[in-house]
Amino acid sequence: MTCESCGGEEATLTEVQRMYVTPAAWDTEESVKPAQGTEQWCEPCMLHYPHQVVEHS
After folding, report:
1. Label partner for 42 (CA 20 to 30 A): which of 18, 22, 27, 53?
2. Residue 35 near residue 17 (C-beta atoms within 8 A)
3. What are the residue ranges in the chain where pLDDT is below 70?
4. Of 1, 42, 38, which is closest to residue 18 (Cα–Cα)?
Protein backbone atom coordinates (compact mmCIF):
# COMPACT_ATOMS: atom_id res chain seq x y z
CA MET A 1 0.00 0.00 0.00
CA THR A 2 1.15 3.55 -0.68
CA CYS A 3 1.24 6.32 1.94
CA GLU A 4 -0.71 9.34 0.68
CA SER A 5 1.62 11.74 2.50
CA CYS A 6 5.12 10.60 1.48
CA GLY A 7 4.38 8.07 -1.27
CA GLY A 8 6.32 5.32 0.52
CA GLU A 9 5.31 1.68 0.25
CA GLU A 10 4.19 0.38 3.66
CA ALA A 11 2.45 -2.79 4.85
CA THR A 12 0.34 -0.90 7.40
CA LEU A 13 -1.37 2.46 6.91
CA THR A 14 -3.69 4.43 9.20
CA GLU A 15 -6.62 6.62 8.17
CA VAL A 16 -5.96 10.20 9.32
CA GLN A 17 -7.22 13.73 8.79
CA ARG A 18 -4.37 16.14 8.02
CA MET A 19 -4.22 19.26 10.20
CA TYR A 20 -2.96 22.61 8.87
CA VAL A 21 -1.14 24.53 11.61
CA THR A 22 -0.23 28.22 11.40
CA PRO A 23 1.92 29.34 14.35
CA ALA A 24 1.17 32.60 16.13
CA ALA A 25 3.14 35.65 15.02
CA TRP A 26 3.06 39.33 15.86
CA ASP A 27 0.34 39.92 13.25
CA THR A 28 -1.60 36.62 13.28
CA GLU A 29 -3.19 34.30 15.81
CA GLU A 30 -2.36 30.63 15.96
CA SER A 31 -4.62 28.53 13.72
CA VAL A 32 -5.24 24.77 13.55
CA LYS A 33 -7.61 23.68 10.78
CA PRO A 34 -8.49 20.17 9.57
CA ALA A 35 -8.18 19.34 5.89
CA GLN A 36 -11.22 18.07 4.04
CA GLY A 37 -11.37 14.32 3.66
CA THR A 38 -9.03 11.67 4.99
CA GLU A 39 -5.77 10.09 3.88
CA GLN A 40 -3.89 6.82 4.49
CA TRP A 41 -0.57 7.52 6.25
CA CYS A 42 2.42 5.44 7.33
CA GLU A 43 3.81 5.52 10.87
CA PRO A 44 6.81 7.81 10.08
CA CYS A 45 4.47 10.46 8.62
CA MET A 46 2.23 10.19 11.68
CA LEU A 47 5.29 10.88 13.88
CA HIS A 48 6.33 14.00 11.95
CA TYR A 49 3.20 15.77 10.70
CA PRO A 50 0.10 17.14 12.49
CA HIS A 51 -2.97 14.95 12.10
CA GLN A 52 -5.91 13.31 13.84
CA VAL A 53 -6.48 9.57 13.62
CA VAL A 54 -9.95 8.79 12.24
CA GLU A 55 -11.92 6.60 14.64
CA HIS A 56 -14.78 4.60 13.14
CA SER A 57 -17.61 3.62 15.48
Report:
1. 22
2. yes
3. none
4. 38
